[in-house]
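Progress note, project year one: complex with fe (ii) ion.
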Amino acid sequence: MKSTSKRAVEQDVLYYEYTSAANPLAKGTISPQPFGELLSELHETGVTRVIPFDLSAQLGITGPATSANLMASFVRIEAGGTINTSVNATSEVYYVIRGQGHSVLFDGTVIDWKCGDFFVIPGGQNTAHSAESDSAFYWINDEPLLRFLGVKVCEARFSPTLYKAEDSRLELQKIAEDPKAVDRNRVSVLLANSNFPQTMTVTHTLWAMFGLLPVDAVQPPHRHNSVALDLILDCKPGCYSLVAKEIGENGVLINPVRQDWKPFSAFITPPFYWHSHHNESGAHANLIPIQDAGLHTYMRTLDIEFAHPKADRAKRS
Ligand SMILES: [Fe+2]
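Model obtained:
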């Protein structure tokens, strides 16, 4: 084997004084997760296509990417149309915003889908999606994570899985009707897969929730180290989230950003930001946050935290 010169193996060496490089995010050498939204008009009009929610320029990374680890897109398929998707990812989650059709995987597996279904597939292979009626997906995958690592997916960790709309709605209804629901921070069902009993998530990297924001709800703030790429379903004006870096001892967010919910549009809740959800619309609303919380849970870094007023905190400590 040809030996590498001393010059070549030392040419990239750097040394930093500890305090000058211990927190690159605070120093500004790495960008924070930007806010952003992807509006429904994009998947409601135009030709069959993938509509990327690409924030890689703001993140300062090679894209496309919506967050450091995840890529979110809408997929629009006109009636009678077909579109192929293929990404170097370990996990792909599709939520059917509207329409019906089927997807054919590389191994011949066929998934029949309709409005309200979720389906989850391992990445790395071509999938052909065909629509019988005007259709749209919300599509999340972890291709940006693999691109950062410089790896190609080589092993499926789970099988293609379909979560039917009627089943997830029934599960959510059971949770909402449980008398204990009033004491809970969220009225939501988490999608899970029997291959991942430790993380209890939809794949080993991804986490998906189907949530209800009841009329007049004020869901108290919480935060976590995973990013949330939120899709709003049906909602009337008056539903919104408040998002802030800091929280007061009274459990109220300090200088929050208000993100108004728009039907069938997506927005971002950055990692470690406190966030609360509010429904002043007079009608129930539903949301689907998808996160890299499977990966964070595996890494023991999710660190989910719920806000409590000062007196309550003291009681719990
Ligand atoms: Fe959250």
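The two ends are 62 Å apart (CA to CA).
The first helix runs from residue 6 to 10.
No further modelling is planned for this target in the current period.
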